[in-house]
Amino acid sequence: MSDWTVYLSGEIHTDWREQLVSAARDLDLPITFTGPVTDHSASDDCGVTILGDEPSPFWKDHKSAKVNAIRTRSLIDRADIIVVRFGDKYRQWNAAFDAGYAAARATPVITLHEPDLTHPLKEVDAAAMAVARTPEQVAQLLAYVIRGELAR
Amino acid sequence: MSDWTVYLSGEIHTDWREQLVSAARDLDLPITFTGPVTDHSASDDCGVTILGDEPSPFWKDHKSAKVNAIRTRSLIDRADIIVVRFGDKYRQWNAAFDAGYAAARATPVITLHEPDLTHPLKEVDAAAMAVARTPEQVAQLLAYVIRGELAR
Amino acid sequence: MSDWTVYLSGEIHTDWREQLVSAARDLDLPITFTGPVTDHSASDDCGVTILGDEPSPFWKDHKSAKVNAIRTRSLIDRADIIVVRFGDKYRQWNAAFDAGYAAARATPVITLHEPDLTHPLKEVDAAAMAVARTPEQVAQLLAYVIRGELAR
Amino acid sequence: MSDWTVYLSGEIHTDWREQLVSAARDLDLPITFTGPVTDHSASDDCGVTILGDEPSPFWKDHKSAKVNAIRTRSLIDRADIIVVRFGDKYRQWNAAFDAGYAAARATPVITLHEPDLTHPLKEVDAAAMAVARTPEQVAQLLAYVIRGELAR
Amino acid sequence: MSDWTVYLSGEIHTDWREQLVSAARDLDLPITFTGPVTDHSASDDCGVTILGDEPSPFWKDHKSAKVNAIRTRSLIDRADIIVVRFGDKYRQWNAAFDAGYAAARATPVITLHEPDLTHPLKEVDAAAMAVARTPEQVAQLLAYVIRGELAR
Amino acid sequence: MSDWTVYLSGEIHTDWREQLVSAARDLDLPITFTGPVTDHSASDDCGVTILGDEPSPFWKDHKSAKVNAIRTRSLIDRADIIVVRFGDKYRQWNAAFDAGYAAARATPVITLHEPDLTHPLKEVDAAAMAVARTPEQVAQLLAYVIRGELAR
Amino acid sequence: MSDWTVYLSGEIHTDWREQLVSAARDLDLPITFTGPVTDHSASDDCGVTILGDEPSPFWKDHKSAKVNAIRTRSLIDRADIIVVRFGDKYRQWNAAFDAGYAAARATPVITLHEPDLTHPLKEVDAAAMAVARTPEQVAQLLAYVIRGELAR
Amino acid sequence: MSDWTVYLSGEIHTDWREQLVSAARDLDLPITFTGPVTDHSASDDCGVTILGDEPSPFWKDHKSAKVNAIRTRSLIDRADIIVVRFGDKYRQWNAAFDAGYAAARATPVITLHEPDLTHPLKEVDAAAMAVARTPEQVAQLLAYVIRGELAR
User: Fold this and answer.
1) CA angle E110, E111, E114 (to 5 degrees)
2) 3-state SS string over chain D?
3) What are the respective helix, strand and coil percentages of chain E, to the nearest 5?
């Protein structure tokens, strides 16, 4: 079976990506994982660092957000599946934005969040193909989807 | 010039839609405004009320969110422009989801929020064609876009 | 709010379409209902009656099925929503085909069937935005989706 | 000539896939065959096994059907050709759904079924590019399509 | 049922369009018929007459063909159904081009030609939803497709 | 024949639009003409006037250009045909941008310019369906395309 | 520079494909050439040989034409460029069909024919990016397009 | 991370492409750079050199522009990102055309120009994801987008 590409969107201040990648590696899954830049300050500063300073916080954010979008849109467009992680901190509107973007392109979405976010995330979950609680569950989903084998 | 359809996404617990519709009416703009169901309890209960009860909160939410999505996706798909309002309460992930969905379909997005949300909304604003602070500004944007006349 | 078009696919030997249209009329919903030709013998014979006889049953069916497809594809392509009814008689593969066709085009699907068909229809229901049991429920779903009002 | 991908949809309780793959191997065809998970119980249980149990049979089915859909949609989207097998047992609505989905995406469909299913499958066959009776015929079709050589 | 648009492509030196339009009018069908410019010399000369003469026959033809294409592509793009007529005179490659163009856009094609053209037209007929012999048959097809009533 | 929408892109400091609209009115053509805001200072100032001042000329331009793009993209998306006028003054990169945008969407483009711009406009003209020299020629093209009648 | 795929459509009773492939090989171009089955009798018989005989010539042709279409549509869909050859024999409606199909998908078309076919092919040539007279010219076009080097 | 393709559009009389490619090579970026034919006379003459002379300058330009478009459209269609360079000489309408074409296809655009072109390029810049001043900045943008590492 050919290789798969999975984009990991959302929360950047916990190690859920590492957990998921590690779990997938343990299962020897043929997956290329992609994602946004997770170095928070690089992500915030890339626009002004590369293209020149901005006195206004709005345009500083704007410049960086667009540079980041070159990466995120390109990688989401190439992904077979997108996993979107919501945590309890910060507003994470970019994660919900990515989910909407992927849904409009008919790319399957897997959400990953705690049960206490069920109500505020109901519209996002309704557009998802699976709602997981742990990175290990996501790894098992990917193993099942790609290999067709269900570990019990 | 032919009529326009504008979808109003986001915050449902303030009267920003009424303010915007009223301002547009004062300007006599040829706009059909659409939007999600803004009666919060109807929106939460539509699934179980129509299709039968669910013991689990997850599936209750899921059923309602999907029924609401029939409406919201259909209306966003028909809209020429989508206005997305973010307020300071609640997480409003569905608003960000709508913005991502519209952006992927190349429907122009206007965001509407206070300056203090600039940083967390930077990715959404980066995908928007205009970032407004008040419903009156949105009405003026629509007047300019549709009529080509700039009030000074 | 502008008018809606709803395509009614599936079972043709019961009066579920009449029940649904009547319920929608009682609610005064601004819907144009469309659907396949429900006169079974006309549907079976249209190809050979108009275009000339065929000795082989396969090509007789083929000719008619293609003529019917001009109608059904055109009307599904124009529909805002498609309702797909599965009954307990016949195999109704055309209903499932329509659901798959609509799903690929991102047209919202509402399925309508008894609970005992839940397991064999699980893939179709998984692609649906709502699973209803009665034509009245479908009418209420449409009323909610179009008007945003929830009768309790 | 470059490699081809062929998705094998439908009937999972006979060995038609093995027969077809074996016939294609004998012909040394450069084909990657894909398909749904054919372990019936894995397919039924994947949702609850990975993501947690459900008391309701409907949601159990729903969860699994969506997980399976991540796989089936992704693989159908990548396929050059889809073969859809209908047998005499079970209702196989998912096979007809796949055919409709592929037809809407303009992916060529080959159906595979006995002559006694001609009438109920007429709409599906009308959307197909070929209607075969045996896996060997499908292998010969693929050999002709890919190599351009006709064995007589 | 809403109105339909049917584009009439192909042969311009017989009165098949008039026969078809007349037959459709007798049946009171809600159809807007469109088609290419059927005044042969206007069609040949439009480019140089409006935009200036060309010494080379190639560029004279090129200029006119492109001006005609503004019309034909626009009208085919708007059509619900395209009827393509092939006669026994001239090469009519533009008719086959239109059929290929419509097929790629999934617009249903009805071909209209005598049986002696069956072999050279087999690829075009294979992409058609119906193959008719007379304008009256096309009118009956349209009546059935639009009204769902089969005259016997 | 149904109505047509024609978008008039490019040069805003001459009266070519008025000449074209007037010529079309004389021919009684069923056309809705649309276009960008042609009040130069309104077009430059709309962003800062409505949404608030900017100290930097770059962001002032940026804000206005995006607000104008809501209008221009929406109207080009709705147009059946786009006419793009290039004059001898200014760089008019936005006109060439519009032509590229329309070409990618397969909307027919008519260019309007003097012969001395032939060489620098060769890529744009190569993507056009007609290259006209005067607004009267464009009106005659539209008359021919819409009515199928060629004035000689 | 990455590899290119070029589909060779049209005339099958002369050796223009061999001439073109040979000329491209001499230029060492990184091209995969594809095309329809050029064994005329295999192309005519594939349907009935593989899938079973047909008493009617129409359905014999129909079966084969659809089987051939699985190949031709798939290969045209994968092609970067399509070359369409028209000769002076036979009607070659399938070649014009392929050109229309490719044009609708925005795949660049190069036509190849003698000057005496200019008038009947004017609509097809108008949709082409280049009109060549010899296979050697096509090879030189491909060399220029791919390598960017012009032999003089 | 997989390889990227970046198309370099615009100005051909300075060495900005070489500077950018060299800067990217220094950073060891996994990028395939593509672009138009930058040999000006080859680009002007390709049509008549390969396909035969034209007495009219218009058609000479037209023939070459279409041959070049086979290359440029194909390469832009394959690109992940397009960089568009505007200089102070010539009108460079083809660069703006490419930007519009890419924007309509949602391919991310990076513009590269001096600050004095800000006003005339405002519509193009408004559609860009980044506006750079030097090839080195573009190389740094690509390094950040592809590797996610920000050099400070």
Assistant:
1) 145
2) CCCEEEEEEECCCCCHHHHHHHHHHHCCCCEEEECCCCCHHHHHHHHHHHHCCCCCHHHHHHHHHHHHHHHHHHHHHHCCEEEEECCCCCCCHHHHHHHHHHHHCCCCEEEECCHHHCCCCHHHHHCCCEEECCHHHHHHHHHHHHHCCCCC
3) 50, 15, 35
Classified as helix, coil or strand, H72 is: helix
Contact exists between H and D (3 or more beta carbon pairs < 8 Å): no
Q: Which two tokens mark H109?
A: 């655009």
> Which residue, B73, C123, B7, is CA-closest to A103?
B73
C-alpha span between A35 and A40 (Å, rounded):
13
- D8 conformational bin, left if phi > 0, alpha if psi -120 to 50, beta if neither: beta
Output H41-50 pairs: Cβ under 8 A, ≥24 positions apart: H42/G144, H42/G148, H42/G149, H42/G150, H43/H12, H43/H68, H45/G150, H45/G152, H46/G144, H46/G150, H47/G130, H49/G150, H49/G152, H50/G132, H50/G137, H50/G140, H50/G141, H50/G144, H50/G150
Query: For a pLDDT cut of 90, what percent of chain F falls above it?
Result: 93
Q: Which of G137, G128, G89, G135 is nearest to G109 (CA)?
A: G128
Alpha-carbon gap, residue G10 to G110, rounded angstroms: 12
Full-model pTM: 0.97
Give the number of other Cβ atoms within 10 Å of residue C25's Cβ: 12
- What pairs with residue H109 in β-bridges? H82
| pLDDT, tens digit only, all 152 positions of chain H | 449 999 999 999 999 999 999 999 999 999 999 999 999 999 999 999 999 999 999 999 999 999 999 999 999 999 999 999 999 887 899 999 999 999 999 999 999 999 999 999 999 999 999 999 999 999 999 999 999 989 87
* Residue H1 DSSP one-character state: -
Q: Please, is H147 exposed, middle or buried when counting C-beta atoms within 10 Å of its C-beta (0-12, 13-18, 19+)?
A: middle
Dihedrals phi, psi of B4, to nearest 5 degrees: -120, 150
Measured distance CA(C96)–CA(C115) in Å, rounded: 17
Which secondary structure element, helix H or strand E, spans residue C82, and what is its range?
A: strand C81-85
From chain G, the residues in CB contact with D129 under 8 A are 66-67, 69-70
Helix, strand, coil percent values for chain H (each to nearest 5): 50, 15, 35
Interfacial residues of E (vs C; Cβ cutoff 8 Å): 1-2, 4, 80-81, 106, 108, 110, 129-133, 137, 140-141, 144-146, 148-150, 152
| B72 contacts: CB under 8 Å, gap ≥ 6 | A123, B9, B36, B98
Residues in chain A: 152
D135-147 and G40-51 are packed helices; what angle lies between their axes, rounded to 10 degrees? 170
CA angle D6, D9, D11 (to 5 degrees): 140
3-state SS, residue B150: coil
E78: which chain F residues are within 8 Å (Cβ-Cβ)? 2
**Partner residue facing E46 (CB), from F4, F110, F150:** F150
pLDDT at D1 over 60: no
Nearest to F58 among H69, H118, H124 (CB): H118
| Cα–Cα distance, F113 to B103 (Å, whole number) | 35
- Cβ-in-10-Å burial (0-12, 13-18, 19+) of B107 comes to buried
Model confidence pLDDT, tens digit, residues D109-152: 999 999 999 999 999 999 999 999 999 999 999 999 999 989 87
Q: Say how far apart CA H110 and CA H80 lie, in whole Å.
A: 11
Residue of E1, D115, E149 lying closest to C41 (CA atoms)? E149
- A and E: touch, per 3+ CB pairs < 8 A? no
H9 and H35 Cβ atoms separated by less than 8 Å: yes
Burial of C40 from C-beta contacts in 10 A (0-12 / 13-18 / 19+): exposed
